Amino acid sequence: MARQKKPRKKSYRPKSVSAIHPLLMQLPMHDEDAKSLVDEARSHLISMRMGPKRGSPLIQLIIELGIFWILAEKTEECAEIRTFIESALNAVRKDIPVPGPLSDQAFECTADALETGLSVLRCSTQAEFNRTRDFLLGENSFALVDDLIREAVRVFGTDECDPASEARPSAAGDGTAD
Question: Where are the domains of the chain?
Fold first, then answer.
């Protein structure tokens, strides 16, 4: 007579494979991801133009412009792009304390900066985008962006500017579950 086999008590647990391979992170950003980020920022911009400004979309817009400013370092026209994005950030700064919708000047300047940001994103890798985003969302990151965020929180209050609600831009495929 053959011996009976013991029942297996160990359960099968597959390894988590949700992390993206490091080599894939070194590829340029997917065009769809870059367009998605800029489209999201554009929708926030349009909503603030059509209705009253709100803190959370404003902060997300400021963070995305800051990301574009930092990522512009790798481009050939770094100084011109950074000056252009700074002018958009300064136009937004002037418009933060003014009640009501975004002004025409701030809207047009920021819309143009978003188009420039799209070209900057197309030249960047997913890893560069993730590092830059995490840097900007950290403490004491970039003076111009930090000052604008503090100003928005001062004007709109902390409830309206909750970073956990909307202020974390993410690109599809970056390995985060936002």
Answer: 29-156
Q: What angle do CA 150, 155, 158 make, to 5 degrees?
A: 65
Angstrom distances, CA of residue 88 to CA of 3, 22, 66: 79, 34, 10
Cα–Cα dist 117/128, whole Å: 14
Instruction: Write the burial class of residue 124 (CB in 10 Å: 0-12 exposed, 13-18 middle, 19+ buried).
Output: buried
Whole-Å CA distances, 164 to 38, 59, 113, 160, 161: 20, 11, 25, 11, 9
Tokens of 43: 């929708």
Q: Is the pTM of this model over 0.90?
A: no
- Pairwise pLDDT comparison (125 vs 160), residue with the higher score: 125
Q: What is the pLDDT of the chain when averaged over all its residues?
A: 82
Q: Which pair of tokens denotes residue 77? A: 């026209």
**What are φ and ψ of residue 160, in 5° steps?**
-75, -20
Tell me the three state secondary structure of residue 28: strand
Residue 47: both structure tokens together: 């909503």
46-99 per-position pLDDT tens digit: 988 888 888 788 888 998 999 999 999 988 999 999 999 999 999 998 988 888
